[in-house]
Fold these 2 entries.
Entry 1:
Amino acid sequence: MTAVFEDSMREAGRLHRLNDVAAAKAAYQAIVARWPKQPDAWYNLALLQRQTFHFHEALDCYRRALAAGIARPEEVHLNRGVIFSDHLRDHAAAAQELQQALTLNPAYTPAMFNLAGLYEDFGKRAEAGSLYARILALEPQAFEALARLANLQPAGSAQGPLIERLNGALAAASRASDRASLGFALGRLLDAAGEYREAFAVYTAANEASRSSAGAHVVPYDRPRHQAFIDRLISGGLPRARASGADIPPQPIFIVGMFRSGSTLTEQLLAGLPGVAAGGEIDFLPRLINTELAPFFESLAALTAERLDSFAARYRSELLRVSASTSFVTDKRPDNFLYIGLIKRLFPDAKIVHTTRDPLDNCLSIFFLHLEQQMSYALRLEDIGHYYREYRRLMAYWKSRFADDIFDFNYDALVEEPQRQLESLCAFLGLPWSGQVPAIALRSAAVKTASVWQVREPLYRTSSGRARHYAEELKGLRDELAELT
């Protein structure tokens, strides 16, 4: 390599470390134009293309890196697999990339882990379990794989040896992130076994470990700050302008509410009806809000109809990626409830399905779920209660503004009377009702959610009234939610 090439690479790397993404991309593009056979330059450019959501360009750069003979090509196939799976929804291509990585390096556990996760998304329990077991055979201290293996077990079916194995792993785990994953897995098994007091203690420790593992990267939940944010949404979360509302299929159906309120089940039931495709948790709106619409409230005030039309068109391109042949695509990003004002300006005719369930059950289920630490309210039961109260306050406001376009769909009522509740939902959405509850368990579509296994089970009532098993532990939460329960 020439000194000029090395100097160019150092400068591009410096720009990347400074997070000057545009300049770093331009620097690497100049490098590959002059030295097209340098694999590391192609690889670094691929990382930047992916970071800026240019996924097809990233795939091409990774391909060029492979053609140029990059070291450890299995890592490139892994990265390509993530793009296909998480961003382009091409799960067959993702599996092919991961399998190619394992062909090159049969002991490459990151590819095994991602492929196992892909199998989970498709409900392939045996295939996923085989890969997690293979990882553990290679790396006995791979505690995340053990936690995922435990979570594969149907509720109530786990035997004592697995619980003992998780307890032993918890005692051996030095990293807080591993203790969190193992704790949530163990709590689930203990809860299913009816060991409620022990389960609650394990879940509490798991949340503490999750909070500890986040370190300084996550801002703790700030009650006054969040309350002020909800105040601003109520007073200024509705843009003055609106998009044209073009009636172009597929149209979105927004499913919003608290996490663990039945949104995944609702989406899968709707996707069993003719003309509806499941879009999952589409990240377009959160990404837009955190980039082009930052700072949010100032940007809302300045939005024009033309810009809203542009956003709506780009959002529809995301829906077309899911399905170009259906009339509707669901977007079940639950926390979009925060941005119903923006949604109703982007899509004035949009229908919004608001999933609800018993407040105590909902809050407890969040506490028992290993959510991303960015959702810092989820790590303490008292903070969950506060967040829930603020969510209900905001939803009351949105329903006062858009009463005809928001439908409360209650999980507890659904499991008691599925046909009646689905008939009402179909009437709200203008969808034909066949009189039959769509089957979910045998569906082959990918389900990317923490509820991946529960949603593939037949409708069951065991989650309704779950809080009664934890009456003593939930006294403070019950007081917090007194007028809502």
Note: The longest strand covers residues 251-257.
Entry 2:
Amino acid sequence: MKRTATSLRQQKKKRTRDLLIKHGMDLFLKQGFEKTTVDQIVAATKVSQRTFFRYFPTKEAIVFAEHATHMDMLEELLLERRGDGTPVLAVLDCLVELARDYEERRAEQYREWQIVVNCPTLVARDVELDFEYEDRIGRYLSENTQWAPEMCRVFAGAMFGAVRAIMREWYEGACQQDLIALGRQRLAPLFRNTVFVNPPS
């Protein structure tokens, strides 16, 4: 009985969170992020402002609601590749695997991009969040190679910079392309060669 009650509470929390995201994103897309207030979001969702802040510290957090999930996914994928003999290729493969989730959520991803690209504040926050990916990739390279820390940071920045360019191409095409195929096509000539796989120490 206790387990069932806990499960029901969790389902209710998820529904509430999903509704806040849905109504928030709908409003952001319709009238712009900056013109949308928390009061409007809670009114559309039919919850209190207090409830809103239990789920999200700011309205900005709604836009990037899946960031923590994607970071957890990347962490899990990198852990699975710990000790791989070709760390640069291992990271690339992990990023391609992460792209599968973006593919499955292409409509939501395109909506998010439309909101972010039209708001300088969100663009700046998006760049900050991307640094978290770079930092995690840099740590993986540091843990799995004998490279200097500076080299790991350079490689992490180069790799994720390439990913950002690919994602921009995907978004500008309304997320209609096969993201995994696009990623493999664009990344292969850049990183699958001896210089990047085995850089000088």
Note: The domain at 66-195 is CATH 1.10.357 (Tetracycline Repressor; domain 2).
